Structure to design on (713 residues):
């Protein structure tokens, strides 16, 4: 027999009270752990000190929306920009790297991001950490896909799998049917290692692939309704509508004038009949095919000097100066012709703003978790304290058998610790189970992949804090037990 | 074995806020290996005397020397430890822990002593007291006589030199009383035994008896 036997017996004797207290602790721990996991994953998703580029060039609109769209793969694009922007920057001596960005399709709820192969080779989703292939290779041809780690795990994708994209990335309007590019399957050629960024939950392909889908759609609609269709683009809180003409100064391979409002990528119920377009042109290289792309959602730029990002953003975002000297200087900038089509967004500034919003939410959640924590500990205190009157005789018997006051104190404290530890262990798994079941809902509503059953040291520190708190909560009843008078509580 | 000198113990009466002297014992001795039956009526301070000898109650003054150790000079935890190692206590109402089996109750008597809990020895003691087939019975599943047997086994679990018994047959019928007394005498062989009772039949089994009034001046006055 050990002190634990006595504790076990005492807890079993008050089984219902013990059970209710354990449930109370379990719920408290589960909630705190669930919040902690969700918080950690949110922070992991959003808090990127470096995103591998200095400036986002996107259609004028909400800067936060452009940031969410290009870095976090959330929200919709602010609109379409001419692909000439990308071409213009390719040979710009100020530019170290430039990547195109074009989204419009998804595969089973995961976004398909059109970009260049260079993005996967040169971009750094985390400072100093470029993308690493877990297996396979980077796409080299049209209709080839490189899959982010989370996407691959969730969908069970493997090299060689055929994926058929669905048109649009946002929710479909009620009654609308998703348009599936079932005539244009792409092949998984590579799977990326986890980066712990939003890039883990997308599929990367060439801009040509994503563009071909749209181009194809537009051609198709052109036949059907004289190419006069409307795309309803919702911009979240920043809804705006702008008539967007695709009649830019650069060459459009499809050579027609889109006259539609780009408020969203929510394509509500296009009807697309079967068609027999060749989606797999083999004669031209991917680079040649990409050169035919006419429109993008954004261009991501890494300058040779970070300060250049600020000056380019200034050129695009501030009104055209009237001073002829200044104007002449600005007109030399290869981006000047696109000034009206673009805004410059410095991602570092937006991320900082985003983190301050996330930080505020974390503080509120943290305060709630603290209250839950305190409530659970008060539950232990109340549960043990209330039993003390009924346990005086037992305590007196043990004292008469030679138990020291300190032994009684330790036994009661140990009871509190055991209740807390059991509650903590069950609560830890319950918390992760909550996250596990909430994960699809969070992914759907917030676009954040929250992974359950990843046990990190911070969670164990929380449990240690709980156990310590439980022991402290046990001290008051333990003191009451400590001061139990033997002679007066002992039956003759 | 036990030597009491000028022992005084009083309690505060909450009714009139006056102190009532319960014990006033100028001199008392229990020799090593002696079995003494102490006659005491209800309210004569017999339980307080046993509690004081056991170190559960600290006297106002005087000394209680057991095995050459004045336990009134010891701190509370030292008295607890002394009690666990050297004194066995048999109660009238058994004072067994309800949630524990007979075996566990005996082991509970061991756990606070220096030697610690020894399951086999506890089983052996219960076997000796006639409860070898009731080791895993809880008090509620045992008769009162069997409960007192567990209490006796627990009292000798740490092989104490002194056994204190407070009305050990007070809750038992005559037949069971006789059996329990036989058991107590049997286990007390070679040890000192101080048994207090108001029952003449019980005291009649002792070769040496004493009336508490003879030694406790608080009652005499």
């Amino acid at each position: 027999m050990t002190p634990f036997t006595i504790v076990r017996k005492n807890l079993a004797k008050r089984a219902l009270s013990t059970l209710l207290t354990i449930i109370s602790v379990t719920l408290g721990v589960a909630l705190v752990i669930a919040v902690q996991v969700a918080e950690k994953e949110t922070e992991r998703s959003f808090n990127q000190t470096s995103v591998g580029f200095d400036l986002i060039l996107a259609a004028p609109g909400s800067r936060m929306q452009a940031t969410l769209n290009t870095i976090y793969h959330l929200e919709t694009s602010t609109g379409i920009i001419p692909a000439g922007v990308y071409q213009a920057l390719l040979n710009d001596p100020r530019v170290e790297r430039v990547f195109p960005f074009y989204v419009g399709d998804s595969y089973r709820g995961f976004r398909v991001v059109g970009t260049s192969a260079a993005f996967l080779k040169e971009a750094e989703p985390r400072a100093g950490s470029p993308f690493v292939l877990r297996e396979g290779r980077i796409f080299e041809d049209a209709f080839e896909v490189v899959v982010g780690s989370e996407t691959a795990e969730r969908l069970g994708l493997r090299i060689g799998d055929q994926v058929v994209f669905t048109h649009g990335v946002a929710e479909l309007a009620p009654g609308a049917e998703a348009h599936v590019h079932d005539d244009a399957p792409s092949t998984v050629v590579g799977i990326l290692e986890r980066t712990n960024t939003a890039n883990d939950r997308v599929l990367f392909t060439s801009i040509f692939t994503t563009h071909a889908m749209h181009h194809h759609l537009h051609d198709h609609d052109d036949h059907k309704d004289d190419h006069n269709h409307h795309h309803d683009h919702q911009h979240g809180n920043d809804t705006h509508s702008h008539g967007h003409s695709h009649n830019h100064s650069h060459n459009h391979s499809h050579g027609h004038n889109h006259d539609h409002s780009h408020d969203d990528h929510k394509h509500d119920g296009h009807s697309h009949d079967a068609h027999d377009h060749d989606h797999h042109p083999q004669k031209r290289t991917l680079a040649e095919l990409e050169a035919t792309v006419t429109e993008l959602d954004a261009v991501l730029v890494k300058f040779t000097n970070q300060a250049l990002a600020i000056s380019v953003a200034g050129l695009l975002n501030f009104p055209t100066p009237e001073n002829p000297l200044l104007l002449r200087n600005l007109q030399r900038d290869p981006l000047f012709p696109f000034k009206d089509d673009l805004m410059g967004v410095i991602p570092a500034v937006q991320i900082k703003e985003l983190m301050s919003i996330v930080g505020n939410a974390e503080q509120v959640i943290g305060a709630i978790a603290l209250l839950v924590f305190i409530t659970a500990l008060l539950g232990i205190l109340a549960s043990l304290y209330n039993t003390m009157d009924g346990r005086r005789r037992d305590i007196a018997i043990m004292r008469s058998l030679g138990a020291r006051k300190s032994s009684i104190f330790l036994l009661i404290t140990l009871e509190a610790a055991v209740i807390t530890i059991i509650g903590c262990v069950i609560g830890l798994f319950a918390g992760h189970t909550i996250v596990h079941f909430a994960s699809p809902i969070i992914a759907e509503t917030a676009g954040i992949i929250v992974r359950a059953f990843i046990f990190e040291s911070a969670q164990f520190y929380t449990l240690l804090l709980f156990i310590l708190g439980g022991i402290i909560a046990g001290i008051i009843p333990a003191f009451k037990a400590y001061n139990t008078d033997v002679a007066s509580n002992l039956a003759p | 074995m036990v030597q009491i000198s000028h022992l005084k113990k009083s309690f505060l009466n909450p009714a009139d806020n006056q102190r009532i002297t319960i014990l006033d014992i100028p001199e008392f001795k229990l020799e090593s290996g002696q079995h003494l039956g102490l006659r005491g009526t209800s309210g004569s301070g017999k339980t307080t005397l046993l509690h004081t000898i056991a170190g559960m109650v600290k006297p106002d003054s005087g000394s209680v020397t057991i095995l050459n150790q004045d336990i009134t000079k010891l701190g509370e935890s030292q008295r607890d430890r002394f009690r666990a190692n050297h004194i066995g206590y048999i109660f009238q109402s058994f004072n067994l822990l309800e949630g524990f089996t007979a075996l566990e109750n005996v082991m509970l008597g061991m756990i606070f002593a220096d030697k610690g809990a020894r399951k086999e020895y506890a089983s052996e003691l219960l076997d000796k007291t006639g409860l070898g087939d009731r080791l895993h019975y809880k008090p509620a599943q045992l008769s009162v006589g069997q409960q007192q047997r567990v209490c006796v086994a627990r009292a000798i679990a740490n092989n104490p030199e002194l056994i204190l018994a407070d009305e050990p047959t007070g809750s038992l019928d005559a037949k069971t009383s006789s059996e329990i007394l036989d058991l107590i005498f049997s286990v007390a062989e070679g040890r000192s035994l101080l048994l207090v009772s108001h029952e003449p039949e019980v005291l009649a089994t002792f070769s040496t008896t004493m009336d508490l009034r003879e030694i406790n001046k608080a009652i005499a006055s």
Summary: The interface with chain A takes residues 47-48, 51, 54, 56-57, 76-77, 80-81, 83-85, 89, 91-93, 95-100, 104, 107-113, 117, 119, 154, 158, 166-167, 170 of chain B (CB under 8 Å).
